[in-house]
Amino acid sequence: MGMLWMAHAPRETPEAAYVFLLPFLIWIHFRPSFRKVLIGMLVSGWIYHIAMVGWMRHVSFGGMCTATFLLSCYQLVWFLIARAWYPRFSRGGFNSRLLIIVGLSALWVSIEWLRTLFTLGFPWCPLAATQWERPILLQSAFFTGSWAVSFFLVFFNLCIGSYLHHLFVRRRQAVGFFNRSICPELYLGILLLFLMIYPFFIERGSSVARETKTLKVGICQPYLLNKWIEGRATEHKDTLRKQTEFLSLADPDIILWPEASTPYPLNLDRIWVEDLAKKTGIPILAGSVIREEGASYNAMVYIDPQEGMRPEWYAKQVLVPFGEYIPKPFGVIPGLKKLVGPVGNFSPGNQVYLFDLPISDGNSSGFVRAGILICYEDIFPSLSRRAVEQGAELLIVSTNDAWFAEEGCAEQHASHSILRAVENKVPVVRCGNAGWSGWIDQRGGVRDVLLDDRDRVYFEGAAVIEVSIPQRNARSLGSMGDQFAYICSVLSIILIIYFKVSPENRAEV
């Protein structure tokens, strides 16, 4: 688990993901009991997830402990099944070993996909996210979703593990030169690596030819803290005003404010924002709370310099359990309602809404259609895919990672935006209250990010970035979406049943 922790952001050793399973594979070679694997991997998995998302304690220590335990339970299933299949792997021939390698790779993807479902779904930092700074490996995600990247990394780990098993165990018992000298799994792992990076070289240079629009985006990163504490509203409004007026000097096409940046519901406190847009002459796309008919929404709102606040807005569709609402089964527990803060339970949106952002690149004018992802919505692949299917040329992630201090949450969150950019072949612009604001091109390359004079992402600042928007064509609509995950899930179920009922199954329990 330590190597998997090293592979994820904000640490910069993604290559550790290629070998993170080797310690476990070596351990199960010595046939530990079911109980030892159960306890060992549950405890180590819990420690790993606490190390990964320990920043959640700044909002709720109890919530952090519960979430990390549930995540370790998901992962535990894979290790228990791997332990059960190992005897067949160690005794079998090439066909049997390959079937198990493919099956365990598919099972890992299936578990990651299951984490996107259900009320408490939290698919944070899938294995593919370890490669967020290595877009050369991510390009296949356009065709298969990022699931294929996770599949490959597990497959490669298992191939390396099989090669080590060949070197130290199998070849001593093998008969014939070929069986002693060749480990086919190693070459399959290398072949799959070449297949994974091949799309990068096919697409190389082609994206430049398709770039037809340039959108100038002013990003406010105000680093607002405790914005609902009495007396802070004026201070926060002044920060947003100063940053917006500063950005307007560069004449951007649009100015972005991060998630829930206004101190009060914008539709009930709109005059100051409308006056600001009118003064600067620049439209503002603001993250704010909207309150209508007794319901509150975490929303993104467009303020036009002439028309003011437009009546159409995007409401966040996937809310944070225990952060933005209390799931019904837990509502009876005393004290939990305090977790949702002074706004109370939010109501979810139920549809995609695209904003037409004005654009003037010097030669022509027009607009760019932008889909919105609020907070952690970019960790759910289906939401961004739905926006692109409805015509989004650009995805905008508006978030507030300041809740979680400066412990890596922002970088981990940004790694998901890179996956969404590659999967949908569209640029992604991120506007955060604190940490990792910038933009990512359609191939997953980080093109610009706001940094202070110490190269840190956690600071109060603002900047104008120029985002290149590629022209979408028929080829851009070829993604499988989640179908690869469905295939992996079906394959996993079939193999679990097969190995369970097969008369050759002599796994030790």
List the helices and strands and how they pair.
Elements: H1 2-7, H2 22-29, H3 34-53, H4 61-91, H5 94-114, H6 141-144, H7 147-173, H8 177-181, H9 184-203, H10 206-210, E1 211-221, H11 233-248, E2 254-256, H12 271-280, E3 284-292, E4 295-304, E5 308-315, E6 355-360, E7 365-374, H13 381-389, E8 394-399, H14 409-424, E9 428-432, E10 438-440, E11 446-449, E12 461-470, H15 483-501
Parallel strand pairs: 1-2, 2-3, 7-8, 8-9
Antiparallel strand pairs: 1-12, 3-4, 4-5, 6-7, 9-10, 10-11
Tell me the distance between the termini: 23 Å
Major pleated sheet = 6 strands, mixed
Low-pLDDT stretches are none
Count every helix, treating DSSP H or I runs of 4 or more residues as helices.
15
Average residue pLDDT: 87
- Which structural class should the secondary elements be placed in? alpha/beta
Shape: elongated
Query: What percentage of amino acids are in beta strands?
Result: 15-25%
Total beta strand runs = 12
State the order of secondary-structure elements, H for helix, E for strand: HHHHHHHHHHEHEHEEEEEHEHEEEEH
Tell me the strand order in the biggest sheet.
Answer: 5-4-3-2-1-12
Q: Roughly how many Å is the radius of gyration?
A: 25 Å
The proportion of residues forming helix, as a percent range, comes to 40-55%
